[in-house]
């Protein structure tokens, strides 16, 4: 019974999500977590690419920023973690195309090195803590407001809060060819957002791994695949057309796909040219590249919201030199948050349903009593 | 032209007379611990198969036994590969699949041809004794498949039945060393004697070993070379009196990769 109840709740949640999903699904990592009530924890981008004897690491937060300072950044901790030892292979063309490589033991992903950044409310650097790297005194850092580098119409003409780091190659172990990295945003010790390979966790079906460490993500994905597959298979396997329609709505948005069972980290190797999904360059049109291998949600939105032809470059030119991100857009007030609430509508529907239910039950009750009294009053046959 | 048509007709008849084997083909037989393994189902002949998408309605069980625990192999209907599992990696794991039954009718000649190919002589004799040789072959077939994927250590679990109605159970973990395959054929959990068991080597259709189980259900197959082997057998019994079919057939298979022989030590 308990299992049935859990199953019913899953179905209800998924069906509900079908209608609620579009609210949060838009954005490289811009729109997750789906609950965007804490925009300062919202990671927007992670870039990693080589430049001479350096690696450039760019970690951006706070999507759609146009407001002026000060911001509320002091409570947050932004961290980039590097796994430098878990084996990665590059034999699978499919994995290279989607993820940059194959992680052979996904459950062993762990941070060998970390860079933790705290910012002041004026976006200046409050602290940077580096573990597991050498020559850290040579790390160069920039923090501040810059143009949002995501090539996607919704985020044109808006800014982000950028953390740009130039890491000397000799900060890493000698002969380090392969890197796996991911970023997290936390507040009061609680992880709120995660980014690995671009355009991954913001997709509606991946919200579940936003607060899960990469080493545990595969297990979470498998468990979710199991429950969602059961729901999909149930609806798809019924003969009614509307049941199949529900299954077809679930499949593209919520079902964990056969190529999804991979932890969300960015893979970079110097064995191949840099560029998404082998790390990420500022100029990478990640929306189109991701679409080419199976995830086209943002590609469609870029056509829906953008002009013709679809933009394949950023709305501002990137800099050839430090800090590489384009100049910020002028400050302007951010759009006011909606004042209308859906709650009165929900309460109204619930009340109407309750009233109708009460009326029907009361009618049946009175009818039963009337029939019973009538039966009792019937004279016995002589 | 007439001879060409005749040859085509013979080929067609032969192809139709051949029933199709069913087996599990994992994406790797040697997954690293924690790696994701996709589990393909295949149907075909001579160990050359077509992918079979997952269809829940036809699945009775689809699971993996690893580290002493059974868990479902997850998957989405109408999709190939049919399932996915995270490899435990500690010890050899057994993936198993059991289908719900499916009904089929074959013309009498084709049915007898197929009974002959699969060594089901007792069924041929029974049909003859009942005067049914000219009767349609009405059958419900059930598919049972297993595959072994390796882990760090051998596993005693692979020598225990997983509970399929018809099953080939190795006597020891065959993934560990190059050696003849010793095992048992079990029907409803009990040894089955005189069952034809065939072994095919992947990529070399000409390699085809056959043996019959002894009265204790034991079989020995001298697998001559390393590689991926399909070991298979078919058993058929008379259907129950109230069944719409006359025969129930049970198709079992075991796919396993036999390792390279260890190099001999030089004195």
Considering DSSP H and I runs of 4 or more, what fraction of the residues of chain B is helical? 10-25%
What is the overall pLDDT average of chain A?
91
Class from helix and strand fractions of chain A: alpha+beta
> For the terminal residues of chain A, how far apart are their CA atoms?
53 Å
User: Uncertain regions of chain B: pLDDT < 50 for 5+ in a row?
Assistant: 1-17
Order of helices and strands of chain A: HEEEEHEEEEEEEHHEHHH
Q: Which spans of chain A of ≥5 residues are poorly predicted at pLDDT below 50?
A: 16-27
Strand content of chain B: 35-45%
Could you describe the 3D structure shown?
Chain A is 30% helix and 22% strand. Chain A is built from 7 helices and 12 strands. The longest helix of chain B is centred in the N-terminal third of the chain and has 16 residues. The radius of gyration of chain B is 19 Å and the shape is globular. In chain B, helix 1 crosses helix 2. At the A-B interface, helix 3 of A face strand 6 of B.
Q: Topology of this protein?
A:
The complex is a heterodimer of chains A (382) and B (267).
Chain A: H1 2-20, E1 43-51, E2 54-65, E3 76-83, E4 88-89, H2 93-99, E5 102-103, E6 113-119, E7 125-131, E8 140-147, E9 159-168, E10 178-187, E11 190-195, H3 214-236, H4 241-253, E12 266-269, H5 286-292, H6 297-305, H7 343-377
Antiparallel strand pairs in A: 1-2, 2-9, 3-6, 3-10, 4-5, 6-7, 8-9, 10-11, 10-12
Helix pairs in contact in A: 3-4, 5-6
Chain B: H1 2-17, E1 21-26, E2 36-45, E3 48-52, E4 59-66, E5 69-72, E6 83-86, E7 93-99, E8 102-106, H2 108-117, H3 121-129, E9 137-149, E10 166-170, E11 181-187, E12 190-191, E13 196-201, E14 204-212, E15 218-221, E16 227-238, E17 247-258
Parallel strand pairs in B: 9-17
Antiparallel strand pairs in B: 1-2, 2-3, 2-6, 4-5, 4-7, 7-9, 8-9, 10-11, 11-12, 11-15, 13-14, 13-16, 16-17
């Amino acid at each position: 019974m308990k299992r049935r109840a859990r199953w019913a709740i899953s179905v209800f949640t998924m069906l509900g999500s079908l209608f609620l999903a579009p609210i949060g699904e838009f954005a490289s990592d811009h729109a997750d977590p789906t609950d965007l009530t804490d925009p300062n924890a919202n990671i927007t981008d992670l870039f990693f690419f080589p430049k001479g004897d350096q690696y450039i690491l760019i970690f951006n937060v706070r999507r759609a920023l146009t407001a002026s300072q000060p911001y509320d950044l002091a409570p947050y901790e932004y961290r980039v973690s590097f796994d430098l030892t878990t084996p990665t292979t590059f034999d699978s063309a499919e994995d290279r195309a989607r993820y940059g490589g194959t992680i052979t033991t996904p459950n062993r992903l762990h941070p060998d090195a970390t860079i933790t950044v705290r910012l002041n409310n004026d976006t200046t650097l409050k602290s940077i803590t580096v573990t597991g790297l050498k020559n850290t005194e040579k790390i160069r850092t920039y923090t501040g407001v810059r143009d949002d580098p995501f090539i996607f119409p919704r985020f044109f003409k808006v800014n982000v809060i950028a953390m740009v780091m130039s890491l000397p190659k000799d900060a890493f172990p000698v002969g380090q060819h392969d890197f796996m990295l991911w970023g997290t945003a936390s507040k009061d010790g609680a992880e709120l957002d995660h980014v690995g390979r671009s355009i991954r966790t913001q997709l509606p079906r991946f919200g579940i791994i936003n607060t899960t460490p990469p080493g545990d993500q595969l297990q979470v994905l498998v468990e979710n695949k199991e429950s969602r597959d059961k729901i999909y298979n149930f609806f798809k396997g019924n003969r009614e057309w509307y049941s199949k329609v529900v299954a077809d709505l679930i499949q593209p948005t919520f079902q964990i796909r056969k190529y999804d069972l991979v932890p969300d980290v960015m893979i970079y190797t110097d064995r191949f040219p840099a560029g998404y999904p082998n790390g990420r360059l500022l100029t990478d049109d990640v929306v189109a590249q991701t679409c080419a291998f199976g995830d086209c949600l943002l590609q469609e939105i870029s056509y829906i919201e953008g002009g013709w032809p679809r933009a394949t470059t950023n709305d501002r030119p990137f800099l050839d030199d430090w800090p590489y991100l384009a100049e910020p857009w002028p400050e302007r007030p951010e759009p006011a948050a909606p004042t209308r609430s859906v709650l009165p509508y929900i309460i109204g529907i619930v009340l109407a349903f309750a009233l109708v239910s009460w009326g029907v039950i009361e009618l049946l009750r009175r009818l039963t009593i009337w029939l019973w009294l009538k039966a009792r009053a019937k004279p016995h046959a002589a | 032209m007439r001879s060409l048509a005749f040859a085509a007709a013979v080929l067609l008849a032969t192809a139709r007379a051949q029933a199709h084997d069913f087996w599990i083909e994992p994406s790797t037989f040697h997954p690293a611990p924690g790696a994701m393994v996709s589990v393909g189902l295949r149907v075909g002949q001579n160990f050359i198969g077509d992918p079979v998408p997952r269809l829940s309605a036809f699945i009775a069980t689809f699971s993996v036994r690893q580290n002493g625990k059974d868990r479902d192999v997850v998957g989405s209907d109408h999709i190939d590969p049919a399932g996915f599992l995270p490899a435990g990696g500690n010890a050899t794991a057994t993936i198993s699949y059991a289908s719900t039954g499916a009904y089929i009718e074959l013309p009498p000649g084709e049915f007898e041809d197929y009974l002959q190919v699969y060594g089901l002589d007792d069924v041929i004799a029974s049909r003859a004794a009942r005067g049914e040789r000219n009767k349609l072959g009405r059958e419900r077939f059930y598919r049972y498949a297993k595959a072994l994927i390796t882990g760090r250590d051998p596993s005693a679990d692979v020598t225990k039945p997983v509970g399929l109605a018809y099953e080939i159970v190795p006597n020891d973990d065959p993934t560990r060393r190059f050696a003849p395959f010793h095992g048992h054929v079990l029907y409803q959990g009990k040894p089955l004697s005189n069952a034809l068991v065939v072994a095919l080597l992947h990529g070399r259709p000409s390699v085809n070993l056959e043996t019959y189980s002894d009265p204790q259900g034991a079989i020995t197959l001298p697998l001559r070379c390393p590689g991926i082997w399909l070991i298979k057998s078919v058993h058929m019994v008379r259907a129950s009196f109230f069944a719409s079919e006359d025969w129930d057939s049970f198709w079992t298979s075991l796919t396993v990769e036999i390792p390279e022989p260890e190099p001999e030590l030089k004195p």
